[in-house]
Design a protein that fits this description.
Blueprint (H helix, E strand, L loop, with lengths): L2 H5 L4 E5 L11 H4 L4 E5 L1 H9 L5 E5 H6 L4 E10 L6 E5 L8 E5 L4 H14 L4 E5 L12 E5 L1 H4 L8 E4 H9 L3 E8 L8 H14 L1 H12 L3 H11 L1 E3 L2 H16 L18
Parallel strand pairs: 1-2, 1-3, 6-7, 6-8
Antiparallel strand pairs: 3-10, 4-10, 4-11, 5-8, 5-9
Helix pairs in contact: 9-10
């Protein structure tokens, strides 16, 4: 393709396909008609933003730290101020004795968060293995399993002596919210008002949480009331000053364990400062 043809291509935007992100993409196609919009797993979106196949994406916060020069371009995010419900660690052994840990393949930020919490609180660095997305997670032979997204919401058949909700554990330990994902753009991208439209999509989503839950719950085999409670009580969709402090602390702890680059400036472009 010629340089001229490539410059005229439609900008590309990627959003997460999980229930926790549905309020951020309400009417997004209508609000951003010039964008090609794709829904995918968080890890896939981060990869494609890094390799130039996306211009803007809702990416795991750990991937923002790893992608030099990218900017946070919206005050819309997926965060928790307490229990998050959809990010859980199930362990068959006491955490202080943990030797093996399987990490959900759809996870990057949560995989780093659980490693930070285990290392900082218990001095534990378990051997890691993948937890595939395409088979029941309880089939893993690991002592503990990190499960995220929609499949973490339903209670498992197996009884586990230790269950962590990572949003709650972080909140109790730090007193700060935890930011799981935010809108990130590649360096130098002209936003042309995109930041306002991302906020508008979030505002519409927050106003329609019951409608979103009713639409999505049957697909996930969840009771509608569970989906409503999850969206309304467990998630927070605004990137305020407390969220930014939590994001900064997460980076410092992850970098201290060599799980993220040390020299990272958190750049907030066109984001509300409240």
């Amino acid at each position: 393709m010629s340089r001229e043809g490539s410059d005229r291509r439609r900008p590309r935007l990627g959003a997460v396909s999980y229930l926790n992100s549905k309020p951020l993409v309400e009417d997004l196609a209508q609000l951003c008609p010039e964008y090609d919009i794709r829904l995918d797993f968080p890890s896939s979106l981060a990869r494609d933003l890094a390799n130039g196949q996306l211009d803007v994406a809702l990416v795991p916060s750990i991937e923002y730290f790893r992608q030099r020069g990218c900017e946070i371009v919206s005050d819309a995010c997926v965060a928790a101020r307490g229990p998050v419900l959809s990010v859980k660690l199930y362990s068959r052994a006491p955490l202080a004795d943990l030797k093996t840990l399987a990490l959900d393949e759809g996870s990057r930020t949560s995989a780093t968060l659980v490693r930070v919490l285990l290392a900082e609180r218990f001095g534990v660095v378990p051997e890691l293995s993948p937890l595939p997305l395409n088979r029941p997670w309880q089939q893993s032979s690991a002592q503990a399993m990190l499960v995220i997204g929609d499949r973490a919401i339903s209670a498992p058949r197996e009884s586990f002596p230790v269950v962590w909700d990572l949003g709650q554990e972080w909140w109790d330990w730090t007193g700060l919210p935890f930011v799981f994902a935010m809108w990130v753009a590649r360096p130098g991208l002209e936003l042309n008002g995109l930041e306002d439209r991302l906020s508008e999509a979030r505002d519409r989503g927050e106003a329609r949480l019951e409608e979103i839950a009713a639409r999505e719950a049957p697909r996930l085999d969840l009771p509608v009331e569970v989906a409503v409670a999850y969206l309304r009580r467990n998630l927070y969709f605004r990137l305020n000053s407390a969220e930014r402090r939590g994001l900064q602390l997460f980076h410092e702890l992850a970098a201290g364990l060599d799980l993220a680059p040390r020299e990272v400036d958190l750049v907030f472009r066109s984001c509300a400062r409240s």
